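Query structure, 876 tokens:
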């Protein structure tokens, strides 16, 4: 191909030279210069046509050669179905692992707000140190001041999402929605498919307008995709709202992984929440997202916001006693939403999947090396009749590309199924999670690129090695005719690939072992409560129109009736359940404690009913539990855990101390044992509980501890509640043990996929060892016959073959240990109770790999030991 191109260029130069010589000749014959060049150009036209035909012919020849290579490669692969099947499946597993993880990354980290084209210039803003579970950082008053003063942002929006209910008729329909600033859709650049967005009423935003924008899913499911929906009314929490728009399909709000169904102006929050928090500067409840001006770096924006925030803290010191520093995050790792967890887990899983892909490439490379030895005679014949070395390399690369493309096709079919597996690791929850990946154009392109890369990585070295026969094709023919024992067992490349496979397998198995042991340690850690035999059910009294007094009366009656059920040991209420991402935070002020400058006084806060500690079986270290006498007419009380007592009243008796919670002073009446309330891998943190009957919440969870199977009491609990209000729906009916599983969901995801990758790596490594040792043993049949004829016993041959496999394993383990020690430190943030150099994990993985190597070598070793010496001597 390259020689043809050079000839065509030379031909062009010859044409130019020919025109000049021809014109000179015609001039010497008496023609004018103009006529001479005219005739020369006519000849040039014919020559140019010839040149174009030459180029076209070259391209046709090149295309014909490629088409011939493809047809020949297909025939070769069909003739070797076992090799083809193993090669395609090996690559498909490696590619599918990567495309699956990438599909999740693409649908979460790379597309943090579905339905928005460009998110790179958007950041989330929070106050204080970065946290995986931050409280919404701003009051409405602070947000409004920042929005109106900033110059580095094209816009700042604010929102607060929570459960709401459609209360048009019958039982309320629970949905998840958000109250949003008037510029919410404008800043995001989202245009409704019907109607308009929220009315831009920034000057009178606090007054609010009773209008709503529906999510596409709610419009489809609840309103039957009514095209004339604009102008109609929907009742939310018993209040009417005019529908002014429908959001586009795919848009689900500003929190990654969470779907909002409706958006309401922020001024209508008092109707939604039942409070007046929009009026207070010291009540922090809004999440804020900003769109940067062109050319502005997020650090510049941070600096400006910090200056503005310090001015606010100086003007209103009583409302800004905690940390007032501003930090920002890109949306792909926003602390608000599931990306705060996935941004640490998915990149690690993608790295492990990449290691698995390298292992698959090494396995395929070994298969190709073995196959190239079997095809030496074919290669030698092709080289001897005139084929070039690079022509042979191209042929082999075409074969490998076909394998890679077939592997990618199978991988995409697997990814279609596995992309939806992320949510399968999450237990049933009322949270509107949207975590599934998708196989879109981006994933398709990524899979194709991965397949082409694997074709190059796995095929180049075997192709170059096979093409070395071009140096002496006749010698190769002679070697092939006389003896094939000089094959794969002498190849350092094949041995190096096997060693690399074992090393990569060890890395994956060590990572899987560390993550698995970490999950085990977390599950075995002290929870601080007993989740067994507890039934949970949630309800919300706000959509049914209960006042505070009526709601408290309902709670008291329900507790009495549930306690009277046979088999019920105790009953309580709460606005949260442990390890389910429902615990809230609040700011406290302990009596006698002087906070340091900018010290955060934010701690976990739960609202609990009478006998809460008894029902969940959390140990009471001092004082007493809540009782039904801790009602609105009694002095305000609270219960703290040991961690809070140690932090603020170390060495003192906390019973009787005063503690300000949610702007109300309470008296500490009990100290509970520490427990886990957010995630399994978190250490215990300070916690304060306040009585439900003194700090009423409409959205509640009822806990029922029973003697037997908790779910067997579901119908009895439903009958009891219906006896008080037949229109009050119960939702998320489950057990405490099942509900808390979401607290370890991301650790299970990491451990499950790392374990799957490790298992596949072990299988691929065993196949690689088996393939190399088996083929080497077969090639050495003649040599083994000679050894046995000279007195070597079957045990000697058996040990020799096993020794070769263990030699590979030893080198691979040493290399794998060095790689693992160097790379597992990146798992440090994902481990709980296990170090990155956990000796037990390393020892167990090393033993497992040695056992797998012995098993892989057993069949070839036994086959070698059973060779008949006389028959082996006649083998060539």
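Result returned for the query:
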């Amino acid at each position: 191909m390259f020689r043809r191109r050079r000839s065509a260029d030379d031909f062009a130069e010859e044409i130019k030279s020919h025109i000049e010589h021809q014109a000179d000749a015609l001039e010497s014959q008496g023609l004018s210069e103009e006529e001479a060049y005219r005739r020369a150009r006519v000849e040039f036209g014919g020559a140019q046509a010839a040149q174009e035909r030459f180029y076209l012919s070259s391209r046709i020849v090149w295309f014909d050669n490629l088409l011939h290579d493809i047809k020949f490669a297909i025939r070769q692969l069909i003739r070797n179905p076992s090799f083809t099947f193993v090669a395609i499946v090996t690559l498909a597993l490696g590619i599918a692992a990567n495309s699956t993880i990438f599909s999740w990354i693409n649908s979460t980290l790379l597309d943090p707000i579905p339905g928005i084209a460009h998110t790179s210039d958007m950041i989330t803003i929070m106050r204080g140190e970065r946290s995986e579970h931050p409280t919404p950082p701003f009051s409405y008053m602070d947000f409004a001041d920042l929005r109106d003063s900033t110059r580095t942002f094209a816009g700042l929006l604010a929102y607060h999402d929570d459960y709401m209910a459609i209360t048009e008729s019958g039982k309320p329909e629970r949905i998840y929605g958000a109250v949003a600033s008037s510029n919410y859709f404008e800043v995001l650049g989202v245009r409704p498919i019907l109607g308009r967005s929220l009315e831009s009423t920034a000057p009178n935003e606090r007054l609010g307008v009773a209008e709503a924008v529906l999510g596409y899913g709610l419009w489809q499911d609840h309103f039957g995709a009514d095209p004339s929906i604009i102008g109609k009314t929907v009742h939310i929490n018993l209040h009417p709202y005019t529908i002014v728009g429908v959001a586009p399909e795919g848009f689900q709000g500003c929190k990654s992984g969470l779907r909002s169904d409706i958006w309401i102006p922020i001024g209508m929050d008092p109707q939604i929440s039942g409070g007046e928090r929009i009026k207070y500067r010291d009540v922090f409840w809004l999440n804020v997202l900003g769109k940067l001006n062109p050319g502005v770096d997020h650090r510049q924006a941070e600096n400006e916001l910090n200056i503005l925030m310090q001015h606010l803290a100086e003007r209103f010191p009583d409302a800004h006693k905690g940390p007032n520093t501003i930090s920002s995050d890109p949306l792909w790792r926003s602390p608000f939403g599931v990306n705060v967890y996935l941004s640490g887990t998915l990149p690690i899983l993608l790295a492990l999947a990449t290691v698995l892909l390298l292992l698959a490439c090494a396995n395929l490379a070994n298969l190709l090396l073995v196959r190239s030895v079997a095809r030496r005679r074919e290669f030698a014949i092709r080289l001897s009749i005139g084929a070039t070395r690079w022509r042979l390399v191209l042929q082999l690369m075409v074969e490998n590309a076909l394998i890679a493309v077939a592997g990618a096709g199978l991988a995409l079919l697997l990814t279609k199924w596995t992309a939806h597996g992320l949510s399968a690791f999450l237990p049933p929850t009322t949270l509107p999670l949207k975590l599934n990946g998708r196989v879109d154009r981006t994933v398709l392109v990524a899979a194709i690129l991965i397949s082409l890369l694997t074709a190059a990585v796995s095929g180049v070295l075997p192709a170059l090695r096979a093409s070395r026969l071009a140096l002496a094709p006749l010698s190769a023919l002679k070697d092939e005719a006389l003896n094939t024992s000089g094959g794969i067992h002498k190849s350092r490349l094949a041995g190096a690939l096997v060693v690399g496979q074992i090393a990569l397998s060890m890395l994956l198995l060590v990572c899987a072992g560390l993550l698995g042991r970490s999950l085990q340690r977390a599950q075995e850690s002290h929870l601080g409560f007993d989740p067994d035999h507890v039934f949970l059910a949630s309800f919300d009294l706000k959509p049914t129109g209960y006042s505070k007094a009526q709601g408290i009366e309902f709670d008291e009656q329900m507790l009495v009736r549930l306690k009277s059920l046979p088999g019920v040991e105790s009953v309580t209420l709460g606005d949260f359940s442990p390890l389910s991402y429902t615990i809230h935070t609040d700011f406290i002020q302990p009596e006698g404690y002087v906070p340091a400058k900018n010290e955060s006084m934010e701690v976990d806060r739960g609202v609990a009913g009478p006998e809460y500690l008894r029902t969940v079986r959390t140990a009471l270290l001092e004082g007493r539990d809540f009782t039904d006498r801790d009602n609105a007419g009694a002095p305000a009380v609270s219960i703290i855990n040991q961690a809070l007592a140690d932090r603020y009243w170390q060495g003192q008796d906390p019973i009787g101390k005063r503690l300000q919670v949610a702007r109300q002073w309470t008296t500490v009446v009990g100290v509970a044992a520490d427990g886990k309330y957010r995630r399994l891998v978190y250490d215990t943190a300070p916690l304060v509980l306040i009585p439900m009957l003194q700090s009423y919440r409409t959205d509640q969870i009822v806990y029922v501890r029973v003697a037997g199977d908790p779910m067997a009491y579901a119908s009895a609990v439903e009958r009891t509640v219906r006896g008080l209000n037949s229109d009050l729906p119960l939702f998320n009916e489950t057990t405490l043990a099942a509900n808390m599983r979401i607290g370890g969901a991301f650790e299970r995801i990491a451990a499950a996929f790392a374990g799957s990758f490790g298992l596949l790596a072990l299988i691929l490594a065993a196949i690689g060892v088996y393939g190399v040792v088996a083929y080497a043993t077969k090639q050495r049949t003649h040599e083994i016959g000679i050894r046995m004829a000279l007195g070597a016993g079957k045990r000697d041959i058996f040990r020799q073959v096993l020794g070769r496999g263990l030699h590979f394993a030893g080198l691979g383990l040493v290399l794998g240990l060095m790689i693992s020690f160097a790379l597992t430190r990146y798992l440090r943030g994902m481990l709980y109770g296990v170090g990155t150099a956990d000796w037990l994990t390393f020892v167990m993985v090393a033993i497992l790999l040695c056992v797998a190597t012995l098993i892989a070598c057993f069949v070839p070793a036994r086959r070698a030991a059973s060779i008949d010496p006389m028959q082996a001597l006649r083998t060539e």
